[in-house]
């Protein structure tokens, strides 16, 4: 079947490691069910995989993609939850399973005509969402939902700073935060992307690194090294930084340890979310009417165009791939 996959790993030129071609797969684990992919979405995770981060060479070839919406053999419209728990894990929160993986890490991903998953990883797609909209939810939007509503401790009326304006997680944070009654401030390297963030619902946009008019209750970090010091400086005493990613690198010039204990701040890691959170997120989109901004929709055969845009950092919202 046609698939976009990592044929090799290339830390410096991830696009060169991508192949879009027919690929025969080994049999899926017993009990897993096929989903015909109607739409999939790209994440920065797919670029990390091509660079070899979290994907060792012995697992190649590996179909990329964490996100999909599609139909099961009996015609059920579903959204695929990308967090695969280890069979030995019995806790209620799969993000706490130390042996969990995401689709495309140990098991073949979603950028293909079909993907196989455990039945517990399927949730019903609300009829109000298109397959393309639903495909945007399982990684970036779910991560944003958990950062805001599970990890941050934010309450309606408080102020949140979102670092970066255009990424999939950043755009989700802006729209979900706005609809939850938060005052949302964003930073961007590009004034035009800042303006687009305001159109999505942010109250104000600031150039990356600029001093803010007042300190904020929480910061949502996906950028990492480039914005870490600004995030710590932006927080009020007792505030929280929630971090889920390090697009610009994982080693900031300063860890800001003194400010973290003296002010005293809370640093909270956050990763993906549970299937139950994915259900609630889909329900929130139905009740609020908000929809993921889609930068572009590409046929699977042209997936490399989407990867190139993601690597260049020129994407605003999600890139959807249709097999
Ligand atoms: N832990 C998890 O479960 C999880 C889930 C999803 C994503 N992530 C991670 O979160 C990060 C974001 O992912 P994404 O898919 O939303 O897309 P992305 O393409 O990584 O988004 C890039 C974002 O970072 C900003 N940015 C990039 N480089 C920057 C720099 N040098 N200085 C300042 N801002 C910079 C961009 O904002 P502007 O262009 O507006 O400045 C944009 O908002 C990735 O690292 C990803 O791996 C983690």
Automatic annotation (TrEMBL):
Sample GO molecular function, one term: oxidoreductase activity
Enoyl reductase (ER) domain sequence ranges: 13-321
InterPro entries given in the database record: ADH-like_C, ADH-like_N, ER, GroES-like_sf, NAD(P)-bd_dom_sf, Zinc_ADH-like
Taxonomic superkingdom: Bacteria
SUPFAM superfamilies reported in the protein's UniProt record: GroES-like, NAD(P)-binding Rossmann-fold domains
UniProt cross-references to PANTHER family, sorted A to Z: DEHYDROGENASE, PUTATIVE (AFU_ORTHOLOGUE AFUA_2G13270)-RELATED (PTHR45033:SF3), PTHR45033
Name of the featured protein: NADPH:quinone reductase-like Zn-dependent oxidoreductase
Lineage of source species: Bacteria, Bacillati, Actinomycetota, Actinomycetes, Propionibacteriales
